[in-house]
Amino acid sequence: MASKIWKALTPSFRTRLVRVTQPKFTVSVAAVVTNPEGKVLLLKHVLRPAADWGIPGGFMEADEQPHDAIRRELLEETGLELQEVNMLRVRTMARHIEILFRARANGEGEVRSREITKLGWYDPEDMPKGTAGIQKHLIEEILRGEV
C-alpha cells in the first residue's frame, strides 16, 4: 500500500518529502598533495584557530563531483592544478562526510583565498608548528600507502 502511495506522488513532492524527513549533512573534499620532490603542500587556514596548518580542501558545491571539487578548491586557494588525483577514502564524522584524495602538483602555488594566510611545501618529517597531530598522522599514513 505504501509503495502505491509513494509512486502516485509527483517526483518533486517525493524529493521535498525526503529532504524534510532525512537528516542534513555537509560534504567536503581534502587532499594530501605532493610535489616532484616529495614535499607535502600545507595551508595555514584562517578558520582553524587551534591547529591552523593542514592539508588543502573545502566544501563541495551542489551537483559537483568530488574529483572536480578538489581540483576547484586547489585552483581557487593556490592556483595549482592537480595531477594524478586518486580518491583514498570516505569517512563520516557526525553530520559531516569527508572525501580524501592524494594528488600531485607542479609549481609553488600562491595564496589566492581570504581563508588562507600562508602556504608551503614541507618535508613530511618537518611540518610546521601548528599542524594538528591528526593531520600529521594522516599524511604519514597516506605517504606510506596505508590509507
Strand order, sheet with most strands: 4-1-6-5
Q: Which structural class fits the helix and strand makeup?
A: alpha+beta
CATH homolog superfamily:
Nucleoside Triphosphate Pyrophosphohydrolase
Number of extended strands: 7
State mean pLDDT (0 to 100 scale): 92
CATH topology: Nucleoside Triphosphate Pyrophosphohydrolase
Distance between the termini: 46 Å
CATH architecture term = Alpha-Beta Complex
Low-pLDDT sequence parts: none
Structure characterization notes:
- The relative contact order is 0.22.
- This protein has helices at 2-8, 11-21, 66-78, 133-143, and strands at 26-34, 40-45, 53-54, 57-59, 82-93, 96-105, 116-122.
- The strands form 2 sheets. It has a 4-stranded mixed β-sheet, covered by helices on one side.
- The model has no long low-confidence stretch (mean pLDDT 92).
- It contains 4 helices and 7 strands, in the order H-H-E-E-E-E-H-E-E-E-H.
- The longest helix is centred in the middle third of the chain and has 13 residues, at 66-78.
- The chain has one domain (25-143): Nucleoside Triphosphate Pyrophosphohydrolase.
- Helix content is 29%, strand content 33%.
- The radius of gyration is 19 Å and the shape is elongated.
- It has 147 residues and is of the alpha+beta class.
Main attributes?
147 residues, Nucleoside Triphosphate Pyrophosphohydrolase, 7 strands
Task: Give a nutshell description of this structure.
This protein is α+β, with helices and mostly antiparallel strands. It is built from four helices and seven strands.
